[in-house]
From TrEMBL:
SMART domains given in the database record: S_TKc
GO biological process: one example: regulation of protein export from nucleus
The protein's name: Kist
Coiled-coil segments: none
Cellular component annotations (GO), alphabetically ordered: neuronal ribonucleoprotein granule; nucleus
GO molecular function, one term: ribonucleoprotein complex binding
Organism listed in the record: Hemiscolopendra marginata
Ranges where the Protein kinase domain occurs: 24-348
Length: 458
């Protein structure tokens, strides 16, 4: 059976019925991967928009479905705030498995395009790192590996104001004996490159000689430091069997492969371009370990002017970011920064604030209205008829949980409105972008939810 014949083909407007009678109406196709197609759909029974992931038919996709469900159910059972997509349920028809997920807005690649393929602000990079390392720390605490971190598998959630992990079809538990090929090109850790080559050789010609495969691949990479760190677990004087076991232990991917991928992503959102376009870097770099750190420094130096133009004293912050990135690229997996340790890195402890560009790109359920008043001239937003009319207009967009009037600080003369639903906030932003009050053009944008919550705690 061809891949095309295994693919689900659902039409816009088509209705899907689960065994309990719930109805899902297809709205549009969102995307597809190796194992499944994802649609936006209306959950008619529960009156909500959802993402409906439909797996290809056939037994060879059963494993990916089971892995994804196992990971999501495990994360949700922890009753923690986890930066991972929410699972609503699953069902099965005669041909396909269906996974019902929360509908997220856009993936990391789309956000980069919204930002004109430029690097994020330092706050934007820090926000991304905090969310992703937080999600990985919980996942890794359960000894589970995502194993396919890339821009398409990280989405922004405006309702909760955070990045979320999704697509766990390649995930695995550390106790698994026979791990499949993992990670996508350009985001593969060196040990995964070795492992995938071994698995491919085993699949194609039945190769069982792990040692020769490892040596061939190591020579292919040409990094002396890579070979030394890879084999240092083996005893100097040992039998061939013991050496084989040492190599197998190193070859098997572990938690550290996710951190390498995050390093690639941090470089991508800092510079605005993909760090490794494919896996050819293993051919080009000699020795690999020293050259990769030179590559990091060179590419970050190229975008330094972009950060200086923000008008911030960012040199010390930028150096901390560089240090975090370097620690993600340690060639020895056992020495690579862990996701838990990353959360305590000094760069993630900085008190940074979003720029206006952040408030325009990352949607939220908090509306930011700037240029409402000029406190330097004694103006306030209190007891102003025009402001009252503006707030009434905001209330017509949807249910409002809280309104915050800022009289000082960087938000002086601004109004913050926390909506119950982010869709209402989006409508308000579009409606108010050309609004004029007291002769001033109102600036309507989004405000990060976590920053709004901090204001309330002050």
């Amino acid at each position: 059976m061809s891949l095309e014949s295994e693919r689900p083909k659902l039409e816009n407007g088509q209705k899907i019925f689960d065994p309990t009678g719930n109805v899902y109406e297809i709205i549009k196709k969102l995307g597809e991967g190796r194992c499944a197609v994802v649609y936006e759909a209306l959950d008619v029974t529960n009156k909500r928009h959802i993402a409906l992931k439909v797996y290809n038919s056939g037994l060879r996709y059963e494993g990916a479905f089971q892995r994804e469900i196992t990971v999501l159910e495990t994360l949700q059972s922890l009753n923690k705030k986890v930066c991972a997509v929410k699972l609503y349920g699953t069902f099965q028809t005669i041909h396909h498995h269906y996974v019902i997920l929360e509908l997220l807005e856009c993936n990391l690649r789309q956000i980069l395009f919204k930002n004109n393929k430029q690097g994020f602000s330092l706050w934007g990079v820090q926000k991304f790192a905090k969310d992703i390392f937080s999600g990985l720390a919980v996942l890794h605490s359960q000894r589970m590996v995502h194993a396919d971190l890339k821009p398409a598998n990280i989405h922004w959630c405006p309702q909760h104001g955070c990045y979320k992990l999704l697509d766990f079809g390649l995930s695995f538990h550390l106790t698994e004996e026979d791990i499949h090929q993992v990670q996508s090109m350009g985001y593969q850790a060196p040990e995964v490159y070795v492992w995938n080559r071994f698995k491919q050789q085993k699949l194609c010609n039945g190769c069982e000689d792990i040692g020769s495969c490892f040596q061939e691949t190591s020579d292919h990479i040409k990094g002396k430091s890579f070979r030394k760190s890879s084999l240092k677990k083996g005893k100097t004087k040992s039998t061939d069997n013991n050496q084989e076991e040492s190599k197998v232990t190193y070859l098997k991917p572990g938690l550290a492969i996710d951190v390498w991928s995050v390093g690639c992503l941090l470089m991508e959102i800092t510079t605005g371009r993909k760090f490794f376009k494919d896996n050819d870097f293993y051919h080009k770099l000699t020795p690999f370990e020293s050259n990769i750190h030179n590559m990091i420094d060179d590419q970050l130096a190229e975008v330094w002017d972009h950060y200086q133009r923000d008008g911030l004293e960012v040199a010390a912050c930028f150096e901390l970011l560089k240090d975090l990135i370097h620690k993600c690229f340690d060639m020895n997996p056992s020495q690579r920064l862990s996701s838990e340790a990353a959360l305590h890195h000094p760069f993630l402890q900085l008190q940074l604030e979003p720029l206006l560009t952040d408030c325009l790109i990352l949607t939220s359920k908090v509306l930011l209205l700037m240029n409402i008043a000029d406190p330097t001239n004694g103006e306030t937003t209190h007891q102003d008829k025009d402001v009252s009319e503006l707030l009434e207009e905001c209330n017509r967009r949807g249910p409002v949980l809280q309104t915050f009037l800022s009289l000082n600080g960087s938000l002086a003369g601004s109004v913050l409105i926390n909506y119950k639903y982010f869709q209402d906030c989006q409508r308000a932003v579009h409606k108010l972008r050309n609004y004029v009050i007291n002769g001033r053009n109102v600036i309507a944008a989004f405000y990060p939810l976590e920053m709004f919550e901090k204001l309330n705690r002050v």
